[in-house]
Input
Amino acid sequence: MIWLPFLVSEHWWDLRDLGNLSREILELIERGLGSEVAYIVSPLIGFVASFLLFVLPTQLYLGVYGERRLIGRMQSRLGPNRVGKFGLLQPIADAIKLIQKEAITPRGADRWVMWTAPVVFVAPAVLVWAVIPFGPNMVIADLPTGLVYYLAVAALPVLAAFMAGWSSNNKYSLFGAMRVVAMAISYEVALVLALLGVVLFTQTLSLQEIILWQRDLDIWLVFLQPLAFIIYFISASAELNRTPTDIAEAESEIVAGYLTEYSGMKWGLFYGMDIGYAIAAAAFGSTVFLGGWSFFGLEEWVPPWLILIVKTQLFYFVFIWTRGTLPRLRIDQLMGLAWKYLLPLAAVNLLVVAAERLWWKEAELGDGIVYLFAAINIVLAVVLLVGWARALGYRPERVRTRPRLVKEPLGYVPADSSAGGGQ
Amino acid sequence: MAATRWWSGHELAKLAQELVPGSVERADDVAAYFRAETLVETMRALRDSDDGDFVYLINLCAADYWSRFEVVYHIASLQKNHAAVAKVEVFDRENPVVPSVVPVWYGAWMQECEAYDLFGIRFEGHPKLYRILLWEGFPGWPLRKDFLSLPGGIQPGLNEFSGTARREPPPVRYVE
Amino acid sequence: MTEIRSEPFVVNIGPQHPSTHGVFRIKATVDGERVIDAEMVMGYLHRSIEKLAEERTYTQNIPFTDRTDYLSSMSNNLGYCLAVEKLAGIEVPPRGNAIRVIMAELQRLASHCMAIGAFANDTGAWQTPVMWTFRERERILDLFEMTSGARLTCNYMRIGGVAFDLPKDFVPACRKVIERFPAFIDELHGLLSENEIFIARTKGIGVITAEQAINASLSGPMLRGSGVAWDIRKADPYCGYEQYDFDIPVGENGDSYDRFIVRLEEMRQSVRIIEQALDGLPGGPFRTEVPLALRPPKGEAYARVEGPRGELGYYVVSDGGPSPFRFHIRPPSFINLSLLKEMTVGGTVADAIVVLGSIDIVVGEIDR
Output
């Protein structure tokens, strides 16, 4: 049992900073096989570390197993608990079942497009993890434009979904495909504007720098820009086709939307990567808004990748929670939400943030001013959210939630109400 | 909270005769038998009248009595809480035709389609008469008494109790 | 460069669909997302019950009535037995009536549980309301199994009363189930009726005015949701309903949301009725004896009950023999579908599903 000192050290066996381990391995390879091989091996190590060690277990165990158990508990039933102790082998059983299943391709479907759609769906799910920092030294590619990279790559699955819907020779799939494209376009705009507000403060697009900025100022961007966070949450939920915005795959209306004709492992890839994208969005949200691998100084004692994973899982838990509870919105309501509600809010947010930023830098106020900004922004967020909804005509108190009770069958509407009589 | 008062056939016949003279064929205790020609007019008058106020069509169905078809209308008034039974008799078995009351009560639409589907009674003036439960091209009219007849007037079925499944001898033996 | 044309196309909603409540098909002509025409195709479950009933005795037809509206079999049985009793002039003892009322109201609770769960499912709440309502429905089905031996197709009512007497532990078990119900209805209220997304999905969808409803012979929660206060239990009481004190919930606008809250409230009222019936349960015989092959005198009778879906009527014609001469069911779901086209045209496909859910159809009844 190795006694780990409190602060993260440079020893290769200090797993709290996996960069140590990878550095040792790479130096070994460089000495042994040359620097070109080391150059090639380094992204492989990154892939293994991030995707296989962090993402895939989280995806399987929180995404597949955890989601089903949690939603089961919300629905007052047990989730899967037969396969293995407490049902923990359920994702493995699912994977085995899907692999051995026949993936039927309908006759009139466009075979090549239908077969490549899952591939196009899976590839960005893996690529997107390249920019998420797991720790101070643990990021595969610390791109100076990490945020834009993430947004770009996370928009690729829309193409795959559209390909999937179009190529299945099925009207329901076409419905789903069209809905996916319409939704993605609408919510992407709101998403980018919200994140732009974040960037105005942090003055950088690199995700590692954003985390360092949050760590230096000792405040999370969620408090500093709550409106951007809410817009990000709703837009990400919409991009990922999760209830309440899952009209693209709305089971009760268009049977499975763009996935109707998919079965077997092709469907399994879509399903699994759907969760993968959701976890990537959760990780990205944790990075940008919740401080990533930093936790007000705790990251020097506890492995930072663990902190990030915990935040990701909490974020994802909120996704699961809304999925289990809320009904689905209709397409025109969703479009209305994106264009009429979120977009103006994001624009106003941008305006406010820009003004604050200008004041901060022009008047050369110290860094303590961010707490004042946080307070102002929180109040402003609440006011704007509620006020804009009211301005758009949303009046929840006007809905009568109990019917009238009548003693006698009169055959017509009792007085004091609209619609005429029974003659 | 009194129970619905079911009018006797004579009462209904009297009211119908007042509203549209010549509309009633005959009446007995249960129902008033209307003439097919003035049916729609009579029903509309009954619906719009103050005494009758029969705004609600409870039930529309047909029955096959070997020598005739009967289309039965159970009509009611919600506010006055009374109901009545009206019937129309059709004696033509080859091509039974009854005027449609869909212009009077919209709720008759699907029930008339069903009567057409199962009995073959055509409703004149129905906006879209089609075989609602069975499919277009189904041979025969299932609920007629001579559908699936066997020789001797026996109907298929359990035939366990004496008297079941033995009816008056049918005028037509086999279904074309 | 080819021109892009857009044209309406026909989508089949059903017969195999998670949300059509059975094998029922709507041929919707859709332009983008707007429905411009909707045609119903039914008959996938047509079993010709009306013809089959003409070959069986009156008592043998009771299981047939179970299977028309299989989600409310007690009410179906009750309607049929009432029609035959009217025809044959048979009196039911008070205990039989009280048991009938308890069973009919329990059945209404179970059926509304299913209806509300399925309706919420249609709006997209991923089975959470369904699971909650089915949890309660299971308890009621346990009660049915205790009394009649079957959960779904109970075959419990007989001509002249009920088939078996209530078992000894029925009344305490029933009270236990009923006690929890108001809390459960409040739970559902909090989950659904006050949920903004649910309201946004169901308000203003599928509006029917009171005149349209009366003219189209609608009944049940559809009629009451449109503001017409008509309930057969009050207007034409049977089985002693006049002794119980309950209210009729009436909606306002006639949209899907109103029908939903009317159903929720009806559940509350059913609980009241059952409590009163349990309190005043008389002793004595539960059935009058009728011969095995009952031969009612020649004539006809129409009897109706307030089923969970609306007015369920049975028109029975007797020719003096042991089997009915004509056996016709007046199915509420069939007639409630009259206005489906008016309700769905102009909305989106999602709205069509919500409307179908709010009508609460059971295909066994539509097709018979």
In short: The longest helix of chain A spans residues 35-74. Residues 220 and 291 of chain A are 5 Å apart (CA to CA). Strands of chain A lie at 404-406. Chain A has one domain: 18-392.
